[in-house]
Design goal:
This protein is an alpha+beta fold and about 575 residues long. The protein has a domain of about 260 residues: Vanillyl-alcohol Oxidase, Chain A, domain 3. Helices cover about 25% and strands about 20% of the residues. It is built from 16 helices and 20 strands. Strands 17-14-16-15-19-20-18 form a 7-stranded antiparallel β-sheet. A 5-stranded antiparallel β-sheet has the order 9-10-13-11-12. A 4-stranded mixed β-sheet has the order 5-6-8-7. Helix 5 runs antiparallel to helix 11 and helix 9 packs across helix 12. About 55% of the residues are buried.
Length: about 575
Amino acid sequence: MDERWLHPFGPHVAGAARLAVAGQHDDGDVSPDRGAEPTHLSGLLWLPWVDQQHRHQPSVPDHAADHRPCQVIGEPAVHHTTERSGTIALPDLAALRRQLSGTVLLPAEPAYQAAVQIDNGRVQLAPRFIVQANSTQDVALVLQYVRQHGLRLTVKGGGHSASGYSLNSGGVVLDMSLMTRIQLDAEARVVTVQTGARWHEVYVHLIDSGTGLIPIGGGCPTVGIAGFMQGGGYSFVSRSYGLSIDNLLALTLVTVDGQVHRLSADSADPAERELFWACRGGGGGNWGVAVEMEVRVHAPRSDRMLTASLRYAPSQAQEVLGFYNRWVESLPDEMAIYGIWGPSPDPSDPSRTIQTFGFTAIYNGDFGEGAKLLSPLLELGPLSASLNRITLPEFELINGASTLVAHRSAYIRSGMMPPGAFKPEAIAVFERFMAVAPSPDSFIVWTHAGGRIEAIEPNATAFAHRGARFVPELKAIWDQPQDARANIEWAHAFFEALEPFFQGAYVNYIDPLLAGWQAKYYGDHYPRLLEIKRQCDPAGLLAFQQGVGSRFEPELSQPLNLAPLNRTFAD
């Protein structure tokens, strides 16, 4: 077994995976994302499916596919050899380096290439330099430097921006990856986390604490906490405890003027209260640089939750999804039934991959109660089914490994579906487009929302979609540059066909080809967000293609203009 892919998740997952390989014999899928393969190993843990056939190559399409003056995807490369960028010198960079406790990376340095890699091989951008901050003071110094010298800035946390907006060409990237301190106050049930940390580090910290406490964190463990939380943040237990932002108690933010603010709902300054409101659902990269978050953690109803995987044949879609559409409305908040449609191992021949759809269930309670609740789905004739017991942090560590795009190329779309949206006509769209997917690796997953999420007052935070029941995410994935346009056009057409069943989209799956993105991401909250942006960043230092205040609108003529997909700045 090649364990290199386990390295980011540490010995907890590596050990569990070694055990899983020894006992593996079931071929269902436990992930709301593609390809996890469960084992019945005492119903405890399973090993994510690792497709050794994937070629890890960055993918930028053939420029000849589009005759516009710009590249089909991407911008002209910027080459650097010294502390100059293009034809523009970088003044006082040596002085900045001396002031920082962190690191400055120039393009000629080996660590630079690693720092510009994100979880999407399609995105190939070349910043002038990267600063890996090691303190709040470093962050303030970088903001001062770019402001003084008229440079553009983006902030990179976990590197999971769906469109690569954490990088840029020709500007400066502030990389938070060195700032990963985590402190747990078990008595107060609060964990304080620096924003360079990724969710897998938080999960491991909580596992090691022995407290059994759980955060409202991401299902993909390599996602950074700051961007995830500022966009809203769905968790497998959000129906029980709300979104990640609903559990954010305080936030330390460095604004563009270099001032450090500890924001909370109880801040004395009304402007700080407004900033805290904006940072909870108003999207990352807009308001300043988050450096630390204080987050509520919870004691689950059961230390070891029920998780289940069920897979069905596409021919069962109308029956099963039609039932699911009605049935989920009767479920308690403790039960979440996530969905997936995509490739999985054939139960009759695990060496072969077939297309299926199905569900990943997570029950925050007694195993027997959860199994009883699932019985109606089990009666619908799944191709495979498995029920397991596991702690939530362990489940998220292992389950999320299959969500990575890594060096493959991806285009990601999203939607917000209200209760009852899986109508026969909507299911038919799923059937039609998944039957003709250009890539066998592409898939669609959806979050089961509601519960505690919609119980919170709609204007309590900047998150605009409390009433959504399902949150679909489409990942078109390919390996070869020449396949880019076909996959992107397919994915775009797929979700355009679903548009009648949507009530907006999710900013954490930000999409440069989404028409009317301001209203779809932020709804009625956008005017208030605009005013906060004008107050906290009047010069637009933190400005990007789909940042709050941008007037960018994608050109949706046919064939699609794909240039916005691999750039951060629209002008």
